[in-house]
Amino acid sequence: MNVNLTIEATHALGPALAVFLGVAAVRLRRERPGWTGRHLVLRTAACLYAAAVLLITVLPLRVTWGEYANQMPWWNQVNYVPLVTVDVTAVPNVLMFVPLGMLLPLLTRVSGTARAAGVSALASLCIEATQLLSYVLFHNGRSVDVNDLLANTLGGLIGYLLVRLALTRPPYRESLRRFALPRSAASRPAVAATAV
Hints:
Elements: E1 3-7, H1 9-29, H2 37-57, E2 61-65, E3 78-79, H3 90-107, H4 113-138, E4 144-145, H5 146-167, H6 170-179, H7 189-193
Parallel strand pairs: 3-4
Antiparallel strand pairs: 1-2
Helix pairs in contact: 1-2, 2-3, 3-5, 4-5
């Protein structure tokens, strides 16, 4: 069977964003803590950021089977060796994950550089695994690179450290705390007082 089709980003992300907006509207109407005012703005920004990352890394999803399929074996699509083939494409991968690192202490209880690096690495690993899986199942042109994993993790760590640094400065600390979700790492005094 020969298949060559594209699943557009709007078909995948449209319903997901609609669900988020529906949940947000219901929780805003009920005035649920963490779902009003600045907190809702932060959650919406995080949702849009996640959608943008999916647009860059996974979507649109090209499905090719039969004569249209990429004929390279999947193991040839994986770069297992770190730092040998690093080039300028690492910079966008670092920059793509800086917002994730910045959002972590504002949305979650993640505190500490090791945890921020771990969450960033896990998020990047999920993206790389999805790209590999889409290649195996749909024979598209996605490749998997350990350097992307390292660059994304570095970007997440940089973003986290920027927020940590800002939390040590009184004018920025108060602004960030107003946006941070209740019970997040940034809303706790101990994080703000900790030196980077």
